[in-house]
Design goal:
There is one protein chain. With about 110 residues, the chain is mostly helical. It has a single domain, classed as Alpha Horseshoe (Serine Threonine Protein Phosphatase 5, Tetratricopeptide repeat). About 65% of the residues lie in helices and about 0% in strands.
Amino acid sequence: MEPDSPEALNFVGYSYADRGIKLDEAEELIKKALKLKPGDGYITDSLGWVYFRQNKLSAALNCLQEAHKILPADAAIAEHLGGRLRENGFKKRSRRSIQGCPESQTG
């Protein structure tokens, strides 16, 4: 109903990524949502999830860490980050190595 709603774009993109389908389309939808609503932690988290599903692990971790920085009390975002770090064998990750989410406009 609202094709330019950042929340709707994020919902569809995340849904695709969560199911592991249409990952290129999911990435584009979520990037569009992030442009419409820069700095949104939930959308940044979704982009990290897409990157993870695309096996772009460095970009995924950077986005998930940024989302956690934006919304540190959100349990789902913390689980996404912790799970990806654990699955990829990262026991400790220096904050100095974080370059930020490639598409985020929060810094």
